[in-house]
Design brief:
Length: about 220
């Protein structure tokens, strides 16, 4: 059963209208990516992930500029139920709405969408509310270094390892949720297990500091 809430249906309608309303001129750039882009916009992804793979829903991940192979793996794992998450406010796993539609997207189409998204510029960091000062960011940076995260995720979450996710510049709420749920064993798909010994050493305060720090990293120069 598809469990879309009323809010999502409104979103879907709005994005459909927006997609039809776009001018042909805007579409001329990056023709090679047009198949992935069209699929992304017509397979309902935009309702949750935003028109350009970036959206203000704080606990949903940005996809613009993410690693393509990583994204294909996550799509596969969310579709199969191998990647799970904690509940949304209605009590369903946050992955559920996406799981319910992924059967509409073939493996080839997933690869095409991932290719398109990976080439989009990563979004700018969102200002935190309440704002954090530089001492707080330094505290997070230190916790990130001491936590051993750099070994796999690189300085500033810049991902030295092919097919690993970028984590610098992601939304604060999403980062907190993922680190917490990886630590708790709720998310244990794919290669997450390798991170468990590192995540399990973090308490909530350290997770919060690391998320504050990572969320403010700018991946692209202005
Ligand atoms: C109903 C909302 C919804 C829809 C529709 C949806 N997603 Fe998602 N997606 C999510 C949520 C929520 C997560 C993160 C789950 C979590 O917190 O563990 C996610 C995660 C992902 C991830 C993993 C990101 C990461 O950093 O780990 C990818 C890739 C992705 N979605 C791609 C897509 C694509 C492509 C589509 C369309 C075919 C799509 N999603 C449709 C809600 C949605
Ligand atoms: C031994 C390697 C390794 C170490 C060390 C490690 N991670 Fe990870 N991490 C991974 C892998 C691999 C994934 C992606 C798992 C997958 O492919 O499904 C991941 C995923 C993540 C994600 C989710 C990204 C997303 O888009 O959903 C976050 C956030 C994260 N790591 C943060 C951290 C932090 C913070 C630390 C330090 C405490 C850390 N990791 C240490 C390997 C590691």
């Amino acid at each position: 059963m598809i469990r879309f809430g009323a809010g999502l249906i409104v979103c879907l309608l709005a994005t459909t209208i927006a997609a039809h309303g776009q001018g042909a001129g805007q579409e001329s750039a990056a023709d090679g990516a047009s198949e992935g882009r069209t699929l992304f916009r017509t397979k309902t992804c935009v309702a949750c992930h935003g028109r350009d793979g970036s959206r203000a829903i704080q606990n949903y991940p940005d996809l613009a500029g993410q690693d393509a192979r990583y994204m294909i793996q996550q799509m596969t794992d969310i579709a199969s139920g191998a990647r799970m998450s904690g509940p949304d406010p209605r009590g369903f796993p946050r992955t559920q709405g996406m799981k319910d539609i992924m059967h509409l997207v073939t493996q080839e189409q997933r690869a095409s969408i991932a290719d398109y998204l990976s080439k989009l510029p990563a979004p700018k960091p969102r200002p935190l509310d309440p704002a954090v000062d530089s001492a707080r960011l330094a505290e997070g940076k230190q916790a990130y270094a001491k936590g051993g995260c750099i070994a796999c995720h690189g300085p500033d979450g810049s991902k030295p390892v092919p097919s690993y996710p970028y984590i610098g510049g992601m939304k604060r709420e999403y980062l907190v949720l993922q680190i917490t749920e990886i630590k708790a064993g709720v998310r244990r798909n794919s290669r997450v297990r390798s991170m468990l010994p590192f995540a399990s050493k973090l308490d909530d305060a350290k997770i919060a500091a690391i998320a504050d720090y990572l969320s403010q990293i700018k991946r692209n120069p202005d």
